[in-house]
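quick one, 128 residues, struct below
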Amino acid sequence: MIVKTLNDLKGTDRDVSGPGWVSRRLLLRDDGFGYSLHDTVVKEGNELTLHYKHHIEANYCFGGEGEVVDVATGRTYPLKAGTLYALDRHDKHIVRALKGDLRLVCIFTPALTGRETHRADGSYAPES
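---
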């Protein structure tokens, strides 16, 4: 059994941040689940352009308010507690935190290793 708290991860290599966001990586590939699980915060007022070309991702919002934009269609979807959005086609997207910090539970498959960093196009490199 694996049991962790966010406090356990703070200040470790599973506590990752970038401009306007923080991600605490609760489960990674080495944990053996085939997916990774993250507690992610997009700070109020920030916008992230992302494009996971080698991963699919599901996100469940449990705090704050924002929006996600499907870049291909231009369609904008509101985000608030209780909203799920899933990037099942490697969708290029924009996430905006509009009211309060946007709080998300994120699942990636294939599982992230924890060493990934966003490239200029908003993607992660494929893992070998």
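The mean pLDDT is 92.
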